[in-house]
Amino acid sequence: MIDKKVKVPVREQEPKVRAGNFKEVCYGYDTNEAMLEATRCLNCKNPRCVQACPVGVNIPSFIAKVKDGDIEAAAQIIAQNSSLPAVCGRVCPQESQCEGSCVVGIKNEAVSIGKLERFVADWARERDLNVSKKDPSNGIKVAVIGSGPSGLACAGDLAKKGYDVTIFEAFHEPGGVLTYGIPEFRLPKKEVVQYEIDSIRKLGVKIETNVIIGRTVTIEELFEEENFKAVFIGSGAGLPMFMGIPGENANGVLSANEFLTRVNLMKAYLEDYDTPIRRGKKVAVVGGGNVAMDAARTALRLGAESHIVYRRSDKELPARAEEVHHAKEEGIIFDTLTNPKEILTDDTGCVRAMRCVRMELGEPDESGRRRPVEIPNSEFEMEVDTVIMSLGTKPNPLITSTTDGLETNRKQCIVVNENGLTSLEGVYAGGDTVTGAATVISAMGAGKVAAKAMDEYLKEKYLSE
Ligand SMILES: Cc1cc2nc3c(=O)[nH]c(=O)nc-3n(C[C@H](O)[C@H](O)[C@H](O)COP(=O)(O)OP(=O)(O)OC[C@H]3O[C@@H](n4cnc5c(N)ncnc54)[C@H](O)[C@@H]3O)c2cc1C
Ligand code: SF4
């Protein structure tokens, strides 16, 4: 007899074992477990879960198919709205989106929508099912800048409508944060990310890597010299922010982006690679979001005693609940209500400690979260040899500074209307470069919205006779 009040548990690697390897933490559901979990869904007439999904996946319909054991039909339903289901099933913040709105969650544990989506996507991938349909080619060239979730979603949708789509990517590997940010133990690169990118390639999308728009070629040149008729900018928000405290330039201080990129993209954790990384003995990661959890858990796997240093309390941690839970299980030490004031160095200029201050929570600020306030005379030294700053990121200004007339706001984000159209005709944008650092699903949603508007614009302008 199963207890229908709680989710069917998902199998995971033991915390002690996984803390020493980079293999995926969660094994996901098998068919029986998924079918059992699917019986917990009430198939609501007005499903609140769908309203809370940024891309509107028809959740009750796909879950009903899982319940009947028709997984292929479930995959087809998900594919109508999502081009990266195996990714979203793994990394979406379900607790604040679909599962956070699930009616079952009012009295009991919400339906495990994310794990069901992951199961269906993995099932389809293992069978190499092609669930996407494509219109005949119309020969119109569209450029997509950046191969993260926003660019991939936009490119995929436009290719399905028959456009000749080329993605330009600055790095040598496509995928954006999916490839260089989120670690292997949360999102396997070869099996999952590469597969989803290949599916988009199979739709006819070309991906040119090592092309930096704004340096190798400008947006103007894409239009005037390369005959592209529309451009989507999905260049993300990859520029790290720092605290501006003394000592931040010391040897042993790095941004989470740099640390994770070196580990993920350049395989710096493998001894025989040319890009080794500093393996700290005692590492402090400053911040409390998903990126901070990923950096702390990566440092742990590289052999460090790993701390999260966060100025608010446990309750305000912005990371996905599952990441915080996994990090704690693995032995990450959480120094909450703590804020660094200075990074202290030894006589060789290397980090030896952080001078920190204890915090308490005051009145709520503009974000609605209680403002952290310093406790007087509570300063102390925390001995560390590596500090990883994970305080958020903003868009790199390269594209905006090389494109005349492209409007940005005071946070350097590109300004768009509700259809993703920028201040320039034929130029659309979406994802983190518009919103600032956000989520995979919202980036993907923005790519899809822009693709729809680009299709309407291009049809009107070039295919209307
Ligand atoms: C470590 C980490 C963990 C995260 N964890 C989660 C999570 O668990 N759940 C979640 O929902 N979200 C998570 N996020 C956030 C999420 O990954 C991002 O919101 C999402 O990837 C944004 O997608 P994007 O397409 O806008 O940009 P990106 O994924 O950043 O992709 C942008 C791409 O554009 C390329 N580019 C930039 N400039 C140029 C240029 N000039 N020319 C050509 N190419 C260019 C970049 O190289 C990059 O590949 C995480 C982010 C990080 C960094
Ligand atoms: S809200 Fe919950 S119970 Fe209702 S359809 Fe969505 S997943 Fe099923």
UniProtKB/TrEMBL annotation:
Its EC number is 1.4.1.13. Residues 32-63 form the 4Fe-4S ferredoxin-type domain. SUPFAM superfamilies: alpha-helical ferredoxin, Nucleotide-binding domain. Keywords: Oxidoreductase. The keyword Oxidoreductase applies. Gene3D superfamilies: Alpha-helical ferredoxin, FAD/NAD(P)-binding domain. InterPro entries: 4Fe4S_Fe-S-bd (IPR017896), DPD_II (IPR028261), FAD/NAD-bd_sf (IPR036188), FAD/NAD-binding_dom (IPR023753), Helical_ferredxn (IPR009051), SudA-like (IPR006004). GO terms for molecular function: glutamate synthase (NADPH) activity; iron-sulfur cluster binding. This is Glutamate synthase (NADPH), homotetrameric. It comes from Filifactor alocis (strain ATCC 35896 / CCUG 47790 / D40 B5). The gene is gltA.
